[in-house]
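Dear Dr. H.,

I hope your travels went smoothly. While you were away I took the liberty of generating a structure for the chain from your last submission, since the lab meeting agenda had it listed for discussion. I wanted you to have the full record in hand beforehand rather than looking at slides cold. The sequence, exactly as received, is reproduced here:
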Amino acid sequence: MRRTIITAITVLLVAGSAWADPFGAVTITEPVDADGAIHQSETPLRYISRIAPDSYVENEYFMEGAATVYTYNDPPVRGEIIVQDADVPYKTRFTVRKPADPADFNGTVIIEWLNSTAGFDVAPVWDASAEFFTRAGWIYVGVTNATNIINFLVNKCPLLGISIFPETCGTRYASLFMSENGQAFEMVSQLANLLRSGEADNPLNPDYPVQRVFHAGQSQQGGSMVTYASAFHEPTINDGYFVQAAGTARRINYGPICGAAGSPAYPDCTPSLTGDDRLVATDLDVPVYRALTETDVSFMLTNASRTCDGGSNDGDPCSNDGECPGGTCPEAFTLARQTDSGDFRYYELAGTSHVTVHKNIEVIPEDIPGGPLQLDETCASLLNTLADGPVRGSYIYNAMWQNMEDQVRLGSVPPSGSLIDEAGGVLTRDAYDNATGGIRMPQMDHPIHSYFSPHNTLNPAVDPLFSQLGSLFCVLAGSYVDIYAPILRYLYASKADFAAALEAAGAQLATDGFLLAEDAALLPVPQDKDGQRCINAHAKAAGIATKARGKLIGKCIKDTSKGKAADADACIAADAAGFALKADAKADKLVTKSCATGARFADPGAAAVSSAAGTGTDQLLRAVFGTDGGGGIDDAIVRASDDKDAAKCQAAVYKGYDKMLGARVKTFAKCAKTGLSAGDKDTAELLNSIGSALQLSECLFADPRNKVALARTKLLSALQKKCLGVDRTAAFPGDCDGSTAISIFGGCLADTVELEAEVVFAWANE
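The corresponding predicted structure, in token form, is as follows:
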């Protein structure tokens, strides 16, 4: 890399023009899937295959080009940048999630600068608002933008970024390279320009014409947004910026910091912006939104009076990058509070946490030392994260995204928010220990919990390998505790009163411009008796439909294996005994009778329940047994006359996984009934009340009496008893690798049952 700082008089740059070329040509290639698996930046529950399995597609691309690294004059001025190293080569990756049908694309592209704090790519912008992006018809692009992540990818993506753990992506990313984080600013401009162009390399051209491009990043990459919007804004390609849960400007490059201990003199060091220049520019001609969670505001106030020693500080950084020349913090985090002006808006969200998600995420698999470990288990206290709740501030983010698009498309004026209250650098809290002020989800003013951000620590039982990353996660995730039962009884005379208060607060939030109608319908508001009866009927109908299809499939597998049926697929399709037909009629009668007045959620009708049961059991069958060239499973069914042991193995596995699915269905129904009725007689039980589709979906992971765990154990036991010595690869050419150890293979089968159970209950999210 050449290091050339050219005289400021000749190369002084102001945002909107560039020394090298933010419009420079790039080369786009596609990775080779055979080289290794894609590195998923999003968390499992936000995979596109779960969020929008039928309406969206995902592709990954490599982008190669050259980007210039910039610096500031001395003293530095926000927006005035000069070339430090011109045309530095790079090759990075980006992922595109777009509507499968181009007609569903509404013209908006969101580019997320994937977060690099963990040492591997994570996607907090996507994780928070994936449902909004997909239902709105937006295209999502996630781009790797940091050198530490390039190194992680090149080094084959070891689990959690820890070298002693298994590598997960092979040599897929061996060709990537990036030498300086400062390349990202011009590099991502080139990506945005490409997506708007008519170039043949543009993966969106010509079917997806782009009308708007918004950029977003959280935390460190939120700091990148501050720097990018302030100094690299290109009005012809960028239409807005969302600085999500971040403080002030990130470094423009990663050379030595001027004024830090041991740093050389300028121009061989990089000056740091100070004071208001560290804040995002508010005079751009496009929307710029900054939103801080309560966690961020708490840290902001705490760091306001911190001092440190010339950059190495006291181990607790005063700013995004630990820059602290001179022994104090001239860029104190309190300066991150900005005043609304023009197209700029600044927001603070009470009761919310910096971390976006936490539920049902496996950190360390069962077959790895220290595993199995769920993310929930890493922290000492209950977790409160932005998209998984209990305070789902992601709904507020969704409204902000819609406001930004409306501002660009329609000229709408976005709403202003209020600040979270504080006194003497400490958040002001009400009688229930919840912060006052700020933008507020309904449960902040009608609480059943006290929310603390930050207020969590690492679980001391967690393996030390996870301690550094886990400690940071836990603090940023915040926590919550239940409000005492006597207080709840005092606050809410009845469940109906509580529900009415929540609905009124939600309506006000929507009126204020911070809640969309689609998300208002998802708010947790307890169901009345009629609604409970209707949802319970749907859950019972799912059990009827699933059991009947399990009986049908099991009979056809048995008959085909024994030669009583010529073709398993034809047998299932024929349903000669009318198992499915009779079950569907019974389910329809039950739901029709129970849903005369309907329910607030999870009330799509019996047809949807039967369809989901059919889809789930069918997908599970094919996932276990594989498919032939025509998409059927007949070729996979072993005839007993050919291999008696393999036929017995298949029969035992089917019986085991069908019973596990049945246990999950029954457990779901029991959980739903209990949760829906919680609080009817005693408002102290509102803590356990199910009031939304999302809360109802949590029943898919409940197992209070270990019924599902027992069925899982029996499935694994059946494998051990009936399948030893059987060629499992031939007997089960589905999604699970039969060549692995029988315990691993069995674990995969059981996990597949759980996955398809979500399909069986897909109606619960409607």
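Two observations you may find useful: Residues 112 and 319 are 22 Å apart (CA to CA). Confidence is low (pLDDT under 50) at residues 1-20, 307-334.

With kind regards,
E. W.
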